[in-house]
Amino acid sequence: MSDFLRWVSTLNPWLEILVIVGVFLLVVLLILFFIEIAPRPGRVYTFIRLAACVAFPALFLWFLQSYQWAIAAAAVLGLVFFFIDKRAKGGEGSLFQLFGFMTPAILLLVVGLIIPTIQTWFQAFMNSRGTAFVGFDNFEWIFSQPQNVRVILNTIVWVLVAPIVSTIAGLAYAYFIDKTRGERIYKILVFMPMAISFVGASIIWRFMYTARPADTDQIGFLNQVIVWFGGQPVNFLAVEPWNTLFLIVVLIWIQTGFAMVILSAAIKGVPAEQLEAAELDGTNGWQKFINVIVPGIRPALIVVLTTISIASLKVFDIVRTMTAGANNTSVIANEMYTQFRSFEAGRSAAFAVILFLLVMPIVIYNAVQLKKQREAR
After folding, report:
1. How far is Cα 76 from Cα 151, in angstroms, rounded to an integer?
2. Which of these, 325, 333, 340, lies nearest to 356 by C-alpha position?
3. What does pTM read for this prediction?
4. What is the pLDDT of residues 311-320, one digit of tens each?
């Protein structure tokens, strides 16, 4: 693969375009092959599937310059898959077609997720150079240093504050703006921060928090307001421990629009019969909201809370852009990057493992809830 990319880079720009377009067309033809040719009956198509099962995995590994034994093993496994496909319940060619569509996604998961995860777990128990096994020394270093404990506590603060506040704010917007005059305009204004990258939002809020000496003009909006009211400029990003909360405000500002859109759609999906029955029972607006609306949108609330919680756990851009972890504002993802930049691969991997362990309960809970919803339907 590296040789192919290196070869492409040496070509004339116009030839590079032709090669890239050619590869794209080859992928399209491959997809059409799986759609049109794979499921067809007949001896000719059977031989085509046999050739594809044996040749495709072998040629793929050969293109990646793999070992000869791996290429041979891939060809043998392809042959085994061909005989399994011939006896599939869905008929000859059904498994071939299914795996043809699944293979790209599986390869991306294996190369981009599974292999790096396994490597990270191994690296977490190795020294900084990855040459010696050190056991739990990297984790012991993390939990024995007060600064590292502060990093983990900061991450927990993020995951406790940001999802709850974002969801409450988004729910309030969704409920009170629903069916009001100018609803579309209000929702667009609230959702606009979602169109801004984390880095862009961080730069915007860094200017908002910027503080200059009292005898000079302020360029930070918040400090300019404070000066107008006769106060002294405040360096928001250096005031501990509140600086972490000031960083969390940026994520809340971004994610509130996401929460509002999801919850607004869920509220519109609450059956009108339930709302009418609640009104006939004489409930007020608050009782209708608590006893009818909230239970009716519980699945959407779970999705919003878990999604923002995961985003809060792995937040990196905001912290790195605004403070780089200074003044005790660092979080696990930022510290993982910092240790890696300091050539401490083992400690960086240990932070990554801790982050993985913190994210997994949320992911599992979300998967369980989605399964229950499907079963209820």
Report:
1. 50
2. 333
3. 0.77
4. 999 899 999 9
